[in-house]
Each structure stands twice: as structure tokens, then as C-alpha cells.
Amino acid sequence: MTPEQRNKPALFYGWFVVGVSVLIVIITNGLTIGGIPVFYKSLIDEFQWNRTIIATAGAVTLLGAGLLVPVVGIYLDHFGAKPFMIAGTLVLGAAMLLYSRVSSPLQMYGAHFLFACSLALAGVVTNILLVSNWFVRRRGTAVGAVITGTSFGGVLLPPAATWLIGQFGWRMSMVILSSLVWFLLLPLVVFLVKNHPRDQGLHPDGEAVDAGDVSTRAAGPPPGLTAGQALSTGTFWSLLLGSALSFYVIFSISQQFILHLQSPQVGLTKSQAALAQSALFLCSVGGKFFFGYLSDRWAKKHVNLLCCTVMFMGSLFLLNLNTITAYPFCVLFGLGFGGTYVTIQLMVAECFGIRALGRILGIVTLAETIGAAAGNILTGSLFDRTGSYELSFRLIVACALAALVMMAMLKPRVQVIAPERPVEA
Question: Which residues of 194-206 are buried (b: 16+ CB within 10 A; e: fewer)?
Fold first, then answer.
């Protein structure tokens, strides 16, 4: 046994990083995306705002984050995740306190823009880049676990926020929930986040690497394409369009499903609708973890196609969504959208490597958020014009099918675990 093996810790620190990232994503996404729809009904009742105003607020978060993430991604590749995560945490805490004081749409939009800033700085992309530094062989499992945080936020926050609103009103509930940022999220980031395994004297996956291999890796660039090279491929544009369509579907449902359940066409109470919303996100947790785990064992493209197929099949229930079909919908659609969410991120590294992962993820995330924002606004606007979600849901089903077609066109190009070497003439 070598000295390195004798000194190897019982549990690789990368798994602690994954656990911290899961908690961070639970709080950031839970407060800004998964849990915030619970507050919409209170805002509608108090201010008599229509659904277009409410949907626009969600779009501000998504579009703002989408525009900012590519910029943050450029610097993530150079400076690592931790400083951006600290800044994002501080912004999120301030946004929650501002939201508790809103009295006009403009003030609400300002709070949602701060949500966008916090997501760009400390959200999913930053955490994916963080854990991708720590894992290669187990990257699918690690990334899948991190992205389950987006669903856990949706599982835990709606019932908790609903109870708090009933006890303290929506304004004080915002203040109470902000304590998660100040007393849990900020200490986690400051004390436990480490940018790279080398910061702990370790190697990715916790595996031993000989000195010659270390020097070789340090001397050359990370494996993969540059952002410019990636943009020149047809696969990049298929992935971009497929991602935008997928997130049109995912966020239209995650933001307005709870409102549909409370509409006269379905007629659930606030508590019943919140429970169904939690069920949807709980199923997506299973999809994210299971399909992330599966992607370490099967070809990632095949797993991605399976996820998109399941999401499309689940979306068909939207054509006749009622108290009976709501829960089968939650199971199929939740599993499908959870897996799709994970495998899209994995396909970026699968197709283009990690050389410019921050930049490329940032561009893909911009497309995702444009699709998500467009879907959210259009879904709310069509409801205001027609008085139902029927037309919106038909469009969502069509987008789910189109996303499946786009993902079927992907051709993974970079599948290397060592730096690319110059090709001699």
C-alpha cells in the first residue's frame, strides 16, 4: 500500500461538495423559482393583478438569469465558483427582504431581477461547474444529485410557504424564509465550498494519479473544444434549440400548474394545489437522481432521449388535465422533466468537453431561459385572452415533441478524459 493510499480519507471530500451544492440549489431555486408561485395567488388577491403581470415577473427572473449566466460563465472558468456563490447569496438575501415590501409591479420586477442575479451567481450552472471539477467518472451521478436540489426546493417550499402565509401573511413569510439565506446558505458557502480537488490535495473522483500524469494535465489545456469551436458545430445548435424547447415546457408547467389547479376548470383548494405541486417536484427528484445515475452506465444521448420521451408522454395528460389525471401527469411529466434537466447539462460536457464548460453552459442556459420565459409569458397571456389553459397546453405538448426531435439529432463529439494533444502535420 502506498503512502497516498494509506492517507486517503474514508469518504472523498467531493461528496461533501455535492451535498453542499444540493443544499445551495435547494435554497436558491426553491426561493426564486420552485416556491415563489405559492405567493402569486396572494399577490393577485391583494393587488388584483392579472396573470400576465405575474407571468412577467417570473420571466424577469428567467431572462435576467439567462442574460447574466454567460457573462458569469466566462469568469467561472478562471476564478472558480466560491466568490460568485458568496456574492449570489448576499444578493438573494437582499431580494427576499425587498420582496416583502413590494406594492407595485415595478417593485416586484426589481425583486425578481435580484433573484436573477442570485441564480446567475450561485445557481445551477455555478454548482454544475463546481462538481464537474470534482468528478469525471462519476460526473453523471454527481450532477444528477446536485440538480435534484431544484426539485427538492419545489417539494419543500410550497407546503412550508403555504403554511407560513396562512399563519403570518405573505410579507412576513418572505422575511422568515430569508433566514434560510442568512443562517444556512451563507455559512455553507463560506466554510465548506472548495473550488477544486487540488485545493484539498486530491484528484477528481478521489482516485490516485501519478506525478507524471499530474504534470501532464497541468501543462496542457483541459479536454474539449473551445466555445468558438463548439458554436461551429450543428450539434451545438440542435442542443441549443432542444434545450430552449424543453425549458419552454418545463417552466410553463412549474410556474402555472398550481394556478391551473385552482382555476374553476379543476377547482382544487390552495392546500390541495400546493400538495400536487409538491408531488410534481418530488417525482422530478426521482427523475433527476435516477437518470443521472443511469447516465454513468448507459450512453448519455440514449438516456437523454429516454427522458425527453417520458416528458412528452406525460405532457399528453395536459390535453385532459383534471383531478383524476393530475397525479398520473405528475408522475410521468415529473420523472421526464427531471431527467431531461439533468441530461441536458451532461450532454454539454459529453459533446464539447470541459475546456470551456462555463462559457458553453452559460450560452445553453441563456437559450433555456429565453425558452422558459417565452413559455411562461405566452402561457399566462393565452389564459388571460381565452379564460383557460387549453390552447397553452396544446402548444406545450407540441414543444415537448419538437424538443424530442432536436435531441435525437445530437452527435456527441468529444469523449476524452485526457487533454487533447496537437495533431502533427
Answer: bbebeebebbbbb
Classify residue 414: in a domain, yes or no: no
d(CA 136, CA 24): 21
In a domain, 72, yes or no: yes
How would DSSP label each residue in 405-416?
A: HHHHT-------
Q: Does 307 have pLDDT greater than 60? A: yes
| % of the chain surpassing 70 pLDDT | 91
Where are the alpha helices (H) located in 100-226, listed in sequence order?
A: 105-122, 124-134, 139-180, 186-192, 211-219
Burial of 52 from C-beta contacts in 10 A (0-12 / 13-18 / 19+): middle
Cα separation, 425 vs 393, whole angstroms: 55
Residues 239-291: tens digit of each pLDDT: 999 999 999 999 889 878 888 888 777 877 778 887 888 888 889 888 888 89
- 394: in domain: yes
Q: Per the domain annotation, does 357 fall within a domain?
A: yes
- How many structural domains are present in the chain? 1
Domain coverage including residue 251: 13-202+223-408
Residue 422 confidence (pLDDT): 40
Cα–Cα distance for residue pair 53/102, rounded to 1 Å:
14
User: Any idea what the CATH number is for the domain that residue 237 is in?
Assistant: 1.20.1250.20
Task: Give the H or E element holding residue 58.
Answer: helix 51-79
pLDDT at 416 over 70: no
**Residue located via cell numbers 410521468:** 332
DSSP codes, 71-89: HHHHHHHHH-SHHHHHHHH
Give the DSSP H or E segment for 225. Answer: none
